[in-house]
Amino acid sequence: MTFQMTPERGRFVTFEGGEGVGKSTQLARLADHLRECGFEVVTTREPGGTEKAEKLRDFLLSGGAAPLGPLAEAALFSAARADHVQALIGPALKRGAWVLCDRFADSTRAYQGACGGVDARTLALLERAAAGETRPDLTIVLDLPARDGLARAATRRDGGETADRFENEGLSFHERLRQAFLDIAESEADRCCVIDAARSVDDVAGAIRAVVHDRFLAHAAQAAQ
Ligand code: T5A
């Protein structure tokens, strides 16, 4: 089905969750589906998405900022986010595109906040400075036991990648992380939707498509009839 209606401002959908839960896989699946529906779709990721932010990504994920502590890391993730929002996400939303982003500010709240100990008020200030009014319309939280996500991430690395700064943390860190994302989803239930990521790629993709159709496309489909 092709949808004729383009919203004045595009839709901003973020994918969140622990390591290896399937965010990149599912983001690509949803992008394909939305393009088949006739929408312009921009896919991107954090940290990264722009040339300057990708440079910060390399530094952060290689562990370069780790000795400075979680507050410095939060500030650098936020600096990358500010450029990303200003140069890529904001303009795309303004012209009516869908933006699908692999991680966003919830990752800072979970990794540097809940797991790193940076206080919520400081993170809220950083979030506001970096993203301003640009907030996700929908956040898909992919939920999977930490051990299973780490095993999936390790399988992906069989291709030759090495474990990054956060994949190297212990299992208890990743279990706290999983709970942190569930807590965020519970506290912002209007924005967030938790999806059981333990199922097959096709089943998870179907569940995400159903949420997106319910939230954004059901009205457009009726209007187009
Ligand atoms: N970070 C990020 C912060 O600390 N603070 C921040 O503010 C931000 C923005 C980013 C790191 O930075 C941290 C968090 C992260 O540690 P990254 O490389 O983007 O690093 O790492 P992740 O986001 O964790 O991405 P991963 O690639 O590890 O995991 P994904 O994207 O969740 O999983 P995906 O799709 O690559 O799948 C992993 C493997 O599982 C398979 C895939 O084929 C792949 O091999 N798979 C499945 N297998 C079975 N069943 C399914 N349903 C499957 N779905 C996927």
Low-pLDDT runs: none
Terminal Cα separation, in Å? 11 Å
Average residue pLDDT: 94
Rg, rounded, reads: 17 Å
Order of the strands making up the biggest sheet: 2-3-1-4-5
Q: Choose one word for the global shape.
A: globular
Order of helices and strands: EHEHHEHHEHHEH
Bound molecules: P1-(5'-adenosyl)P5-(5'-thymidyl)pentaphosphate
- In CATH, the topology is named Rossmann fold
What is the structural class?
Answer: alpha/beta
Number of helical segments with 4 or more residues = 8
Structure characterization notes:
The structure is a single chain. The protein has 225 residues and is α/β, with parallel strands linked by helices. The chain has a single domain (7-224), classed as 3-Layer(aba) Sandwich (Rossmann fold). 56% of the residues lie in helices and 12% in strands. It is built from eight helices and five strands. Strands 2-3-1-4-5 form a five-stranded parallel sheet, sandwiched between helices. The radius of gyration is 17 Å and the shape is globular. The mean pLDDT is 94. The protein binds P1-(5'-adenosyl)P5-(5'-thymidyl)pentaphosphate.
Task: Give the arrangement of secondary structure elements.
Elements: E1 12-16, H1 23-36, E2 41-45, H2 51-61, H3 70-94, E3 98-102, H4 105-114, H5 120-131, E4 138-143, H6 146-157, H7 171-187, E5 192-196, H8 201-224
The structure holds P1-(5'-adenosyl)P5-(5'-thymidyl)pentaphosphate.
The site of P1-(5'-adenosyl)P5-(5'-thymidyl)pentaphosphate (T5A) has 27 residues, from helix 1, helix 4, helix 6 and helix 8.
